[in-house]
Each structure stands twice: as structure tokens, then as C-alpha cells.
Amino acid sequence: MKRNDMAYKLKVDELFWVRVAAFLAFIIPFLACYKLWFSERVFPLVPMFDFLMIPNYLGDIALIIVFLLLFLYFVFNPNWKVGLSILGIYMYWIVVDQNRIQGFFFEIMLMVLALSQFKNDK
Predict the structure, then answer these.
(1) Of all residues in the chain, what percent are helix, strand and coil, respectively (each to 5)?
(2) Average pLDDT over residues 1-23
(3) 5 φ/ψ angles, rounded to the nearest 5 degrees
(4) pLDDT at 2 > cutoff 70
(5) For a Cys staple, 111 with which of 22, 28, 74, 121, CB 3.0–4.6 Å?
(6) Residue 121: is its pLDDT beyond 60?
(7) Burial (0-12, 13-18, 19+ Cβ within 10 Å), 117
């Protein structure tokens, strides 16, 4: 058996399911209230700063796709660069609209930071 084999990596990586849980902790509420994550909506945006560029519908779609792909990549291959990219997009969303701050927001941010630091450590 090769050591680079994905099944071997998942067997050795004890934090894999924690990363899956962090991804699901974002995606389930995201799907439940998906309209909140689009800037073009009837419900008003509440940006933290007036000078911020608010993305249009295509910009929102692009950010969502990049975010989900980065988070999925992070689940299988955690590292600082991807973790910080995830947090950067997430923070941008929050700064653009304060309504997106939910109870799980800080938990997911801290989990991504911790999982970036302790990749395969118990």
C-alpha cells in the first residue's frame, strides 16, 4: 500500500471528521437560508463600512463557489494558506453584511484556525 493513498491518509488523519463537521456546520445553515448570502435581495444589507464594494449576483456566485471549493479542499488537505483564504472570504461576507453574523460564525472561524494549526494532531 502506498503511503500517499487517500484511504491511508484518511485512516491516519484523526481530525478528518472534525473538518467534515466544520464544513457541514457551515453548509447546512447556508442552505437553510441561502438568500441571506446574496447581496441583491429585498432584505436590506447592513455593511460595517460605507466604502466597501458590494458584489453583484455573479460576484456572490463566484465567492460562494470559491469558498465552497476552498473549504472542501481544506477538509482533505488542511493548511494555513487555505484556512486563511476561507477566513478572509468569510470575514468579507460579514463586513459587507452584518446580518450574516450567526451564532455559529465564531465557532467555525476558530475551528478552521485550530484545524489549520493542528493538521493531524490529536
Answers:
(1) 65, 0, 35
(2) 71
(3) -60, 135
(4) no
(5) 22
(6) no
(7) exposed
Q: How far apart are CA 98 and CA 94, in angstroms?
A: 5
Residue type (1 letter), 101: I
Encode pLDDT of 48-77 as tens digits: 888 888 888 999 999 999 999 999 999 888
Residue 55 contacts by C-beta under 8 Å, 6 or more apart in sequence? 39, 62, 63, 96
**Residue bearing cell 437553510:** 32
The Cα–Cα gap between 78 and 116 comes to 6
Rounded CA gap, 96 and 113, in Å?
A: 22
Round to the nearest angstrom and report the end-to-end CA distance of the chain: 24
Helix crossing, 105-117 with 80-96: angle to 10°? 160
DSSP 45: P
DSSP letter, residue 104: T
For residues 85 and 63, the answer to whether their CB atoms sit within 8 Å is no
Name the residue among 67, 10, 60 with its Cα closest to residue 35: 60
Contact by Cβ (8 Å): 55, 63:
yes
